[in-house]
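Example 5.3 — Bifunctional chorismate mutase/prephenate dehydratase
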Amino acid sequence: MSEAQELEQLRNSIDSIDRQIQELINQRARCAQQVAEVKQKYAQPGEVVVFYRPEREAQVLRNVMARNEGPLTNEGMARLFREIMSQCLALEEPLNVAFLGPEGTFTQQAAVKHFGHAVHCHSQVSIADVFREVESGAANFGVVPIENSTEGVVTHTLDSFFDSGLRICGEVSLRIHHHLMVKDKDATVERIFSHAQSLGQCRRWLDKHYPNVERVAVSSNAEAARRASLEPGAAAIAGEVAADLYEMHILNTNIEDRPDNTTRFLIIGKLETLPSGDDKTSIMVSSRNQPGALYQVLEPFHKAGVSLTRIETRPARTGTWNYAFFIDFEGHAADAVIAPVLQGLQDQVADYKLLGSYPKAVL
Ligand SMILES: O=C(O)C(=O)C[C@]1(C(=O)O)C=C[C@@H](O)C=C1
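Solution (predicted structure tokens):
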């Protein structure tokens, strides 16, 4: 057989497989439509029907990864199913998602990673605006950054929970790669724009390669790319999406000081997420200002064998030198081991708020 004949044969096979995949995907989509009808049928009068089920989505993606035999990677296969489910959900209910913008930020990338491409993403100017959009019902969900592995916690996001009744419905983990970009690759770089956190994440690289160039902190990486696209002699540190959006030329790729630089984002909404089998819970407690206060808060977790994943301390809004603890731990608030721990805690501390139980990030 000639090369052309062999290729034709294989491409015929691919065409036939594609036809079957397409038919199956549509069969799946019809099932999702029926799921929507059942949800509506059993809703109480006046009840808001919940179509998006994060715990079910996490289970579907985990199942895909567990049974995958390759040659596609587990993550690659899960990403394909992420998109299929995103399209299926859009048939049930098109979701509106507010994210910390502008267009081209890592937060937008996180929103797409979590929900897939079939949701409507709306850019917001500030973290407070993302909370407001979701609280008012203009958006079904919001996406905000919460912590970076190099630079630490995003205090704005944590503090927003003091006054908000919104729940955490999910988390997204995104590997962050920063690139140095310019409009004109022959111009001398006189100024570098980026978000303060990103300048921090690339500090050592900048000290080595651009020690005497002015660093200017702006509101986001995408804004940095936008400014650098307009000002001669300016460069930006931002991600690939922003580089594409503003048609920038990338001078240096992956300039972050730590190769494992990762940012975690939260999905916020009004939804109470059911247990998925592999969950995390976030709470906020503020204890009376007395010796051993934090110990008393943490001891019940230790006794119950619950694994804590993060603790942040923030000044509480009540009284000087009072503190609020933001605690993340493994498990769901409804789990038999966790529920009594949380009940005991509520009786003991001055202030307690369950911020949410949600599936651990799958992708
Ligand atoms: O299982 C459901 O509740 C569905 O609505 C179906 C489905 C899916 O496509 O698998 C779609 C949307 C939900 O977020 C979860 C899963």
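Remark. Residues 32, 35, 51-53, 56-57, 60, 85, 88-89, 92 surround prephenic acid (CB under 6 Å).
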